[in-house]
């Protein structure tokens, strides 16, 4: 008889930060731990999460344009809408939760934080039975000269999360929420406040894109892509056909196929 796995069996150690901490600390923790979002606590209780996206939106906002990132607290970027589960529950419960949230917070009977489950954690033990075509996402293609202020607006207005940087059919890189958050924090830390707007307006995709891009050809098994994501601790893989970009496979698109 096969024993069913519980959330306790696959959960990982929680990565959290106090709401009083600075957003620069939160971003450094997320980048260092390879997670997104980070759990936010106050007086020992979970109050929400903060993501690379919410940090990028806050830093790029005109309302906070003159405020250095080292003066903005996590409380200003926390998203109170989060989901949680208990350690003894069946892992099947995680599928619909992770199809709607990036992480599941794990609480004990007294509602104290004891763990978390990420998409990567679930994909280590559950893999969809589907073809590569079923998990490919189309992503906006941009030129290397596209301005970051326009990409930031598209992320906010259109909920875009990734852009393929394309030059005459050749993929140069990918711009993600992480690239945008990291670039804005770095720029605002290094440049005087009076020069912020001008420098940000002059930033282009080529300046901040992630490169080289991890890619696989059409026909690659989904399980092999999951293994590649786990090995490299990445959440996005480019799919190509005769070296031309077709789309992206993300952890979210794979979770959606479970």
User: Quick one: CATH class of the largest domain?
Assistant: Alpha Beta
**Low-confidence runs:** none
C-alpha-based Rg, rounded = 19 Å
Gross morphology: flat
CATH topology of the largest domain: CBS-domain
* Second-tier CATH architecture of the largest domain: Roll
Q: Count the E strands.
A: 13
In DSSP terms (H or I, runs of 4 or more residues), the helix count works out at: 11
Beta-strand residue fraction? 15-25%
H/E element sequence: HEHEEHEHEEHEEHEEHHHEHEEH
Number of domains: 2
Q: Output the structural class.
A: alpha/beta
Characterise this structure.
The chain is an alpha/beta fold and 258 residues long. It folds into 2 domains: 7-123, CBS-domain; 132-256, CBS-domain (Roll), CATH 3.10.580.10. The chain is built from 11 helices and 13 strands. Strands 7-13-12-11 form a 4-stranded mixed beta sheet. The mean pLDDT is 90.
């Amino acid at each position: 008889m096969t024993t069913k796995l519980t959330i306790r069996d696959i959960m990982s150690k929680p990565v959290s930060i106090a709401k009083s901490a600075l957003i620069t600390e939160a971003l450094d923790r997320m980048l260092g731990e390879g997670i997104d979002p980070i759990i936010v606590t106050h007086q020992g209780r979970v109050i929400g999460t903060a993501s690379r996206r919410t940090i990028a939106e806050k830093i790029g906002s005109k309302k906070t344009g003159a405020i250095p990132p080292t003066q903005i607290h996590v409380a200003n970027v926390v998203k109170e809408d989060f989901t949680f589960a208990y350690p003894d529950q069946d892992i099947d419960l995680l599928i619909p939760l992770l199809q709607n949230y990036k992480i599941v917070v794990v609480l004990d009977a007294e509602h104290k934080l004891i763990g978390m489950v990420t998409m990567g954690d679930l994909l280590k033990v559950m893999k969809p039975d589907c073809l590569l075509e079923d998990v490919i996402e189309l992503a906006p293609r941009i030129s290397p000269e596209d301005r970051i202020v326009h990409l930031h607006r598209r992320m906010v207005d259109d909920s875009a999360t990734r852009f393929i940087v394309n030059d005459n059919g050749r993929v140069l890189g990918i711009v993600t929420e992480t690239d945008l958050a990291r670039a804005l924090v770095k720029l605002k830390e290094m440049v005087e406040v009076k020069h912020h707007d001008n420098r940000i307006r002059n930033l282009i995709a080529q300046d901040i894109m992630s490169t080289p891009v991890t890619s696989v050809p059409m026909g690659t098994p989904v399980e092999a892509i999951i293994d590649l994501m786990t090995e490299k601790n990445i959440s996005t893989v480019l799919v190509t056909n005769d070296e031309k970009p077709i789309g992206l496979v993300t952890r979210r698109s794979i979770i959606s196929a479970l």
